[in-house]
Amino acid sequence: MDNLIVVGANPRSSSLGARDRLIPEPTAVEGLLLRLRAEGVAEAVILSTCDRVEVYALEGEDGGAVGRIIAVLADFALMGPAEAERHLYVLTGEEAVRHVFAVAAALDGTVVGDPHVAAQLKDAWRLSRKAGLLGESLDGLLQAAFAAAKQARSRTGIGRAPVSLVAAAARLVEQVHGDPRAVRGLVVGMSEIGEMIAEGMRSARLAHLSVAHPEAARAEAAARLLDCHVAAYPLEVAELARADVVVTCLGGRRHVLTPELVKALLRARRYQPILLIDTAVPGDVDPAVDAIDAAFLYTLDDLEKVARVGLEAREKAAGDARAIIDDEVRAFLRRRAERAAVPVLDALRRHFEASRQAALDDAGGDAEKATRLLVNRLLHSPSTALRSAAAEGGPDAKELDAIARALRTLFSLDDGPGEKRE
């Protein structure tokens, strides 16, 4: 699928500030799809999550789709195209196919097996179809990616890691605070794993849950998703002090919870314990906080230990899943290549059949004459083309050799005159 393009931004390619500008809210995605269509992008899907935005599209015959996609994203983010390009990655061809399959199988996020991105990709696929930007090629790609992801989940343990991490977080809430129904939670920022932990706490019926985010619109969107309240940002000691559990998900390469801030909020809490779950990479909470009495700091690695899902088991599940995805990508590309050959084979069959019928008509019932005529007519065009290619002004020796090899492969020819095949 040489014409597939992926243009996107994720935590590995861009800063938090850039992603906050580039990632559209769910209500804005359909408008962006229509913008892409107006710019001449015939097929496109936009995946928009807490952590990433990716456009999957097909390059047209005129080229230039990458530039048009970047221009649309830049305009949405109120950036210049050059500035936006610094925060975006571009994948094409087989690399792009492998990426789409990996995203569908939850192999491209912070936590292997996170089901949220796969669900959001299905939502993106449906929205693209509704907007009229989902053609046969892009639809076939995504359908194959969904099927491969299902195989990876059913044949490996990749789905266990995120479930166990959420369960570990719930156990920590109970160990530190007891009945979760008397606990107040605060989510700072939003990420795929942070969203999962927040949903887990919501399912445990926390007494109160709030979300804060540097971008007010993203805080509102997260609050709608989690059916909870919006808290002010920047974080205030009073707001933090009301929270018994704080889940941080910013990953902005700057500590938002420092030892000084945590000491201040503990004083405001009259030194009642507070549970801090830092899901960000890099972390949002200064590691020195862990030395403060009554502050219980856990990172993703700590959650994994609590869940008793070791790194070795997680990496094995991921490795097994990637092997399945690699096999499925190869099978998908092979099927695509085989389908691409069908029109040529159909045309060749029609040509042979027409030549056969003409030879029978011209031979007047003489079978030997008919077969001789058929062979001569079938060889006439290839013979003329090869002689012309070998003449002055034709292809060089390497090209002629390639043509000769192709003929030998297609028709299982002997290597030379007089040689018998075994």
Quick overview of this protein structure:
The chain folds into three domains: 4-158, 2-Layer Sandwich (Beta Polymerase, domain 2); 160-309, Rossmann fold (3-Layer(aba) Sandwich), CATH 3.40.50.720; 338-411.
Written account of the structure:
The relative contact order is 0.09. Mean pLDDT is 87; it is low at 418-422. 58% of the residues lie in helices and 12% in strands. With 422 residues, the protein is α/β, with parallel strands linked by helices. It folds into three domains: 4-158, Beta Polymerase, domain 2; 160-309, Rossmann fold; 338-411. It has 16 helices and ten strands. Helix 5 (93-104) packs across helix 14 and helix 7 crosses helix 14 (311-363).
Secondary-structure content class: alpha/beta
Helix and strand pattern: EHHEEHHEHHHHEHEHEHEHEEHHHH
E-strand count: 10
Structural domain count: 3
What would CATH call the homologous superfamily of the largest domain?
Glutamyl-tRNA reductase, N-terminal domain
Strand content: 5-15%
Major β-sheet profile:
6 strands, parallel
Rg over C-alpha atoms, rounded to the nearest angstrom:
30 Å
Low-confidence stretches: 418-422
Strand order of the largest sheet: 7-6-5-8-9-10
What would you call the shape?
Answer: elongated
Mean pLDDT: 87
Number of helices: 16
CATH topology of the largest domain: Beta Polymerase, domain 2
Q: Mind telling me which CATH architecture of the largest domain this is?
A: 2-Layer Sandwich
Give the end-to-end Cα distance, rounded to a whole number of Å.
Answer: 38 Å
Top-tier CATH class of the largest domain: Alpha Beta
